[in-house]
Amino acid sequence: MLPSHTVRAYDEELKYLAMRIGSMGGHAERMVDQAVAALVNSDVGLAEKVIRDDAVLDQGQREIDEKAILIIAKRQPMADDLREIIGAIRISADLERVGDLGKNIAKRVVAVTQGRQPVSLFRGLEALADLALTQLKEVLDVYASRSIEGIGFVRDRDEQIDAMYTSLFRQLLTYMMEDPRNITACTHLLFCAKNIERIGDHATNIAETVYYIATGAQMPAERPKEDKSHKITLAEE
User: Fold this and answer.
1) CA 135 to mean position of chain CA atoms
2) pLDDT (tens digit, 9 = 90+) per residue, 145-156?
3) Is residue 199 domain-resident?
4) Cα–Cα distance between 124 and 217 in angstroms, integer?
5) What does the pLDDT read at residue 111?
6) What's the domain count of the chain?
7) What is the DSSP string of 36-104?
8) Helix %, strand %, coil % of the chain (to 5)
9) What's the whole-model pTM score?
10) CATH number at residue 52
């Protein structure tokens, strides 16, 4: 829960930061969900909407930065309050990047739809996106409630996302080798898959920030940091 103060205006300022984070989180989730839907359904109009919607997250980050600086200058917060404010700045930056990743997926819709790809590839992307978005939603719920019990699930799921991405990378590489005409579309799909994998990383960053806000301590450093796609070579195929 947010700290309570005798100065009502101070409470309202901190609540404003939390409210804007919640709003940005919901918007980022929708952008990614719609970007993947546009990719799967060859919906160029929806892709263009996602690209336009990125401006909302950019504005949200600017508002949070400006408000946080104002609060620090005016209230000179310490301890819990200062962690709350700095945490909001960090989380808004991660959410803005999630929006950028969703926009990047949307930008590739036209290139991918020029040559229709097997349904199995899109199913893989959908499954990867579902996992990443579930992780993002759950960590935003933790931020809203400050109930950090079991927050380690975020890191566990991030490892699942990395494994699924590596599998999809291998599948797309194999498909390109089978028919060089698939190279262009599959290359774009590889970038889309990597963008989705990065969303999982940002969700994990948010989890670590929430843990710091709530406890004043850093989460243990055993977080898995990478997928295994860099180990896949043509010789394996």
Assistant:
1) 9
2) 888 886 877 878
3) yes
4) 37
5) 85
6) 1
7) HHHHHHT-HHHHHHHHHHHHHHHHHHHHHHHHHHHHHHHH---HHHHHHHHHHHHHHHHHHHHHHHHHH
8) 80, 0, 20
9) 0.88
10) 1.20.58.220
